Amino acid sequence: MGTELLYMDDSYLREFDAIVSGVKQDEISLNRTAFYPQGGGLPSDTGIIRKGNEEYKVVDVRKEGGTVWHKVPGHSLTEGDEIRGIIEWDRRYRVMRMHTALHALIAIMNEKYGVLVTGNKISPERSRVDVNLEKPNKELVREAIEETNRILSKGLPVKIYHLPREEAMKIPGIVKLANALPPSVDRLRIVEIEGVDIQADGGPHVANTKEVGKIIFLKLENKGRNNRRIHFTLEP
């Protein structure tokens, strides 16, 4: 039996109750979790697991098959223990803002220039996205970021819902990853920035684009033929 993924339905869930379902040295699995495991270019959550008066730091989270494993160095937890999980919220919220910013920026660049994502890495302080842009063009990137910031400032709702895979795959632009398809599951989790973007996606997002703030362009790198890396951060 796998782990129930609470973050899939509620990106704002900061604390939750769960039961330890497995122990593997300094890692534990839970029957349910709000901790996001590393994946999709996003870092894992960090935080605390509390059992009574005992408190342990969660330093890394990974998914193996249908089970989420939490790295909790020095713990003395055993299978069946009832725990309280607490997300390091400031860090998670920053990642959520970065993630929604990335979706909006790629949607604008895809619409205006037809680019697709070839890779990305999000972190709380600064992020990057690789796109299949033929020529390095800082002015083009600056214009795209300026347009994205204008759209983000409108305060558009960001909706999360699920659709049957067959229905979802009929939506134009549902996949913006070059040479990639969503996982082969019956239902896909959809993230929609109203009027701007709609994607199959498994990560946490803010609920309104006004929460993102302003995208700040840092630099543009060449990463091979037809591949450009855009570095950015957020303000505030």
Number of helices: 3
Q: How many strand elements?
A: 16
CATH-defined fold name of the largest domain: Threonyl-tRNA Synthetase, Chain A, domain 2
SSE topology string: EEEEEEEEEHEEHEHEEEE
- Rg: 19 Å
Poorly predicted ranges (pLDDT <50, ≥5 residues)? Answer: none
Strand content: 35-45%
Largest sheet: 7 strands, antiparallel
CATH architecture of the largest domain: 2-Layer Sandwich
SS-derived structural category: alpha+beta
Distance between the termini: 42 Å
CATH superfamily of the largest domain, please? Threonyl-trna Synthetase, Chain A, domain 2
What this model shows, in words?
The protein has about 240 residues and is α+β, with helices and mostly antiparallel strands. The protein folds into 2 domains: about 80 residues, Elongation Factor Tu (Ef-tu), domain 3, CATH 2.40.30.130; about 140 residues, 2-Layer Sandwich (Threonyl-tRNA Synthetase, Chain A, domain 2). The protein has 3 helices and 16 strands. A 7-stranded antiparallel β-sheet has the order 6-5-9-2-3-8-7, with no helix packed on it. Strands 10-11-16-15 form a 4-stranded antiparallel β-sheet. The protein has a 3-stranded antiparallel β-sheet with strand order 12-13-14. A hairpin with a 5-residue loop joins β15 and β16. α1 packs across α2. The longest helix has 25 residues. It is globular. The N and C termini lie far apart (about 40 Å). About 35% of the residues are buried. The mean pLDDT is about 95.
